[in-house]
């Protein structure tokens, strides 16, 4: 298939826009607002593969503003930061976020996570601490959308400064942290506490493509959007970048824009089949499309297709 025949836009056929705002998010947001008076600095964690998309605009109104705010673009190991410089300067100009740091919570030597604590201390010391002016300890609240590495970041800090094991549960699916946690000590001298919070999405993700980017990065539960749809967005995205590594991975002969072709081929290659019983009692063996889609998407998330930036403009 000639690459100029690939789709140039990704359209959702279902008119229901992507949304996920379970009860724990509304409650979490309220708890975060209540905690604000005890907080000196906000570290907002976001996925570096989507530096612009999907950040919760509600944070700006409910949480941001008065406290020093650092944006940690995490999972740096999975992204191509060279595609970001314009995006970052736009972010600084349009949103007034002056402090953007790339972090990788999987790397103990990450320069970004090492810079975070001294920067937070500096910002706090130079800020108006309002009611907390007399407090000797510093308190940092970690916020962000689901599955971006908020709890991981807290664990990295605690491990670095206190040599203590994990205090916050971490997991590869969205929605691991369900409520605002008690403050956790991460440093003794100076005394610094961090508050972990549940990932919170905006109640209505108005932009379909933004919803698909979030889904591809695992910020929503896969079953909610549908593994096959996420796989289709991935295929669209790879084709737009002429990244054809999927051809070999999924056992295809050549690039295609047809997701069913990709998934059936992948299922055959992997031997992933399902038995399906017909009304007359006969049993047919069919390709397990869902399992094949999971395999495809999982490879993206592990970095198989290289370092990516979902917000970078497609090459023309
Ligand atoms: N590759 C990579 N994976 C990371 C990094 N940081 C965290 N992860 C992984 O991302 C997943 C989510 O991490 P969590 O720390 O649970 O994320 P969270 O933001 O607390 O998620 P919720 O509590 O669900 O909102 C886990 O599988 C982590 O191991 C990173 O820098 N690079
Ligand atoms: Mg968490």
Automatic annotation (TrEMBL):
What is one GO cellular-component annotation here? mitochondrial inner membrane
* Biological process terms in GO annotation: mitochondrial translation
Coiled coil stretches, renumbered: none
Q: Cross-referenced InterPro entries, in alphabetical order?
A: G_CP_dom, GTP-bd, GTP-bd_ortho_bundle_sf, GTPase_MTG1, P-loop_NTPase
Query: What name does this protein carry?
Result: Mitochondrial GTPase 1
Molecular function in Gene Ontology: GTP binding; GTPase activity
Q: What is the lineage of its organism?
A: Eukaryota, Metazoa, Ecdysozoa, Arthropoda, Hexapoda
Q: Which UniProt keywords apply?
A: GTP-binding, Membrane, Mitochondrion, Mitochondrion inner membrane, Nucleotide-binding, Transit peptide
Residue numbers binding GTP: 74-77, 147-152, 199
The CP-type G domain covers which part of the protein? 29-203
Please name the Pfam families in this protein's record. Answer: MMR_HSR1
Q: Where in the cell is it found?
A: Mitochondrion inner membrane
Q: Which PROSITE patterns match?
A: G_CP
Q: Which organism is it from?
A: Hermetia illucens (Black soldier fly)
**Membrane-protein topology:** Peripheral membrane protein
Q: Which Gene3D superfamilies match?
A: 1.10.1580.10, P-loop containing nucleotide triphosphate hydrolases (3.40.50.300)
**Major subcellular site:** mitochondrion
Query: What does the sequence similarity comment in the record state about its family?
Result: Belongs to the TRAFAC class YlqF/YawG GTPase family. MTG1 subfamily.
Tell me where the signal peptide lies.
none
């Amino acid at each position: 298939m000639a690459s100029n025949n690939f789709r140039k836009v990704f359209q959702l056929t279902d008119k229901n826009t992507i949304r996920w705002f379970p009860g724990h998010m509304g409650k979490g947001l309220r708890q975060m607002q209540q905690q604000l008076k005890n907080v000196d600095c906000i570290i907002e964690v976001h996925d570096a593969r989507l530096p612009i998309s999907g950040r919760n605009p509600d944070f700006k109104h409910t949480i941001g503003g008065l406290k020093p705010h650092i944006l940690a673009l995490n999972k740096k190991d999975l992204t191509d930061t060279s595609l970001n410089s314009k995006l970052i300067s736009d972010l600084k100009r349009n949103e007034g976020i002056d402090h953007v740091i790339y972090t990788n919570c999987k790397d103990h030597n990450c320069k970004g996570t090492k810079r975070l604590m001294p920067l937070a201390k500096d910002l706090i010391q130079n800020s108006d601490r309002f009611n907390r002016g007399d407090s000797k300890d510093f308190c940092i609240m970690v916020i962000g959308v689901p599955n971006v590495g908020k709890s991981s970041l807290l664990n990295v800090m605690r491990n670095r400064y206190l040599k203590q094991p994990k205090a916050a549960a971490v997991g590869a699916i969205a929605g691991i942290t369900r409520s605002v946690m008690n403050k956790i000590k991460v440093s003794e001298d100076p005394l610094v506490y961090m508050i972990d919070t549940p990932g919170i999405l905006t109640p209505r993700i108005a932009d379909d493509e933004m919803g698909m980017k979030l889904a591809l990065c695992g910020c929503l539960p896969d079953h909610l959007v549908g593994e096959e749809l996420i796989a289709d967005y991935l295929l669209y995205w790879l084709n737009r970048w002429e990244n054809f590594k999927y051809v070999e991975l999924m056992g295809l002969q050549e690039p295609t824009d047809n997701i069913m072709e990709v998934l059936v081929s992948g299922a055959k290659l992997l031997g992933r089949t399902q038995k399906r019983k017909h009304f007359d009692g006969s049993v047919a063996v069919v390709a397990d499309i869902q399992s094949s889609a999971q395999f495809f998407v999982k490879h993206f998330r592990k970095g198989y297709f290289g370092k990516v930036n979902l917000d970078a403009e497609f090459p023309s």
